């Protein structure tokens, strides 16, 4: 047999080495493809598992929530209506619930209606209790929860005793208070006046009409309502150390006939009384009419809010001053802020948890311009 030449042997060795390298490369490529397919299958499996179980694979960073958001504790779960961060235009159902029926709330309703016209995909219900009973208000709130409302702004009738109930409400919807506050732990935000400051303003007006001192009586719908308590606090702070004495605080449970009767009884029982102060909107007309019935044109009158009869009394000079809030802004700002929080997240809330709307003192000198502004607001202006 003839031996191969040296050059031929080298060529054959090279061919063998090339073949081995080609086979090795094929094995490596095959393994890589298998590995990639395996990873892809695992990822798809995880996605499918999420679909089957209804869960999503969320990173730890995402699970903590957006900046400024805080998860609720086990004892206080986050309200269902609390949104994740980010803006959207999903449909919302919002409600504005008052504590009684009065002209004050007619003005607030105008603000609610203006806000409703400016917001997209928002349905709004405006609710007025038929009486001033906390039970009636609870029935309204329960009905709204059954209807799955996303946000409710309420003026709580009995905030102290209603606190446990309001805490439960806040677990099911975004809960705001307006006009009268509740415990901060049971609501997301308060929209309304600083009622202590409003009370101080009324106290200064009392001092102005009674420079020599004298006896005063206060009238209100419900003494336990937070706005009433705070206004009384503000008045007492200003009158402390003066010769002005608060004889009593009479409540009427939002009954207008009883409100007027309370004033008539006070004028008979305390003929020396120098000043009558009405803390809720309808107390102004009640005081004005009771004093007229008694032919008493000397007792001084200080009121709150802007009922038509009250403003007429200010114009005539019979009422020295009325401390007005801005109920239009209560309605307008509460609706806008609820929608913003639901669509953008809790970071849209004021840091203090309160959206304070300033109060004003209206006298004979300023009532004309105020009435013009009020007429514009009632027509839907801002």
Order of helices and strands: HHEHEHEHEEHEHEHEHEHEHEEH
Query: According to CATH, what is the topology of the domain at 92-193 and 328-359?
Result: Rossmann fold
The assigned CATH architecture of the domain at 92-193 and 328-359 is 3-Layer(aba) Sandwich
The general outline is globular
The secondary-structure class comes to alpha/beta
Mean pLDDT: 82
Low-confidence stretches: 1-86
* Overall CATH class of the domain at 92-193 and 328-359: Alpha Beta
Number of helices: 12
In short:
The protein is α/β, with parallel strands linked by helices. It has helices at residues 6-53, 60-63, 103-118, 134-146, 163-170, 195-209, 226-239, 256-269, 283-293, 308-316, 327-344, 367-378, and strands spanning 92-97, 122-127, 151-154, 174-178, 189-192, 214-220, 244-251, 275-278, 300-304, 321-324, 354-356, 360-362.
Structural topology:
Elements: H1 6-53, H2 60-63, E1 92-97, H3 103-118, E2 122-127, H4 134-146, E3 151-154, H5 163-170, E4 174-178, E5 189-192, H6 195-209, E6 214-220, H7 226-239, E7 244-251, H8 256-269, E8 275-278, H9 283-293, E9 300-304, H10 308-316, E10 321-324, H11 327-344, E11 354-356, E12 360-362, H12 367-378
Parallel strand pairs: 1-2, 1-3, 3-4, 4-5, 5-11, 6-7, 6-8, 8-9, 9-10
Antiparallel strand pairs: 10-12
Helix pairs in contact: 3-11, 6-7, 8-9
């Amino acid at each position: 047999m003839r031996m191969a030449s040296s050059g031929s042997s080298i060529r054959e060795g090279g061919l063998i080495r090339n073949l081995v390298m080609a086979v090795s490369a094929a094995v490596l490529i095959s393994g890589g493809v298998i590995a990639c397919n395996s990873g892809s299958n695992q990822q798809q499996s995880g996605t499918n598992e999420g679909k089957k179980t209804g869960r999503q694979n969320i990173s730890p960073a995402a699970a903590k929530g957006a900046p400024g958001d805080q998860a609720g504790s086990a004892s206080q779960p986050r309200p269902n209506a609390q949104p994740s961060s980010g803006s959207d235009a999903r449909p919302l159902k919002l409600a504005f619930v008052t504590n009684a029926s009065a002209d004050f709330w007619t003005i607030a309703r105008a603000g609610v209606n203006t806000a409703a016209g400016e917001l997209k995909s928002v349905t709004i219900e405006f609710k007025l209790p038929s009486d001033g009973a906390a039970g009636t208000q609870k029935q309204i709130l329960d009905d709204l929860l059954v209807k799955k409302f996303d946000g409710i702004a309420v003026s709580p009738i009995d905030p102290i005793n209603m606190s446990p109930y309001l805490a439960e409400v806040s677990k099911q919807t975004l809960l705001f208070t307006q006009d009268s506050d509740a415990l901060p732990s049971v609501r997301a935000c308060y929209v309304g006046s600083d009622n202590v400051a409003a009370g101080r303003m009324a106290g200064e007006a009392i001092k102005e009409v009674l420079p020599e001192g004298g006896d005063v009586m206060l009238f209100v719908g419900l003494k336990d309502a937070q706005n009433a308590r705070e206004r009384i606090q503000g008045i007492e702070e200003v009158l402390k150390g003066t010769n002005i004495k608060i004889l009593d605080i009479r409540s009427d449970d939002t009954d207008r006939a009883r409100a007027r009767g309370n004033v008539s009884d006070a004028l008979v029982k305390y003929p020396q009384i120098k000043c009558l102060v009405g803390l809720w909107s309808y107390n102004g007309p009640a005081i004005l009419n009771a004093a007229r019935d008694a032919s008493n044109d000397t007792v001084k009158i200080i009121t709150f809010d802007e009922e038509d009869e009250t403003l007429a009394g200010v114009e005539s000079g019979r009422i020295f001053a009325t401390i007005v809030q801005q109920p239009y802004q209560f309605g307008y700002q509460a609706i806008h802020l609820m929608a913003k929080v639901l669509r953008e997240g809790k970071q849209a809330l004021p840091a203090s948890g309160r959206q304070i709307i300033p109060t004003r003192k209206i006298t004979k000198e300023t009532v004309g311009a105020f009435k013009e502004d009020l007429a514009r607001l009632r027509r839907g202006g801002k």
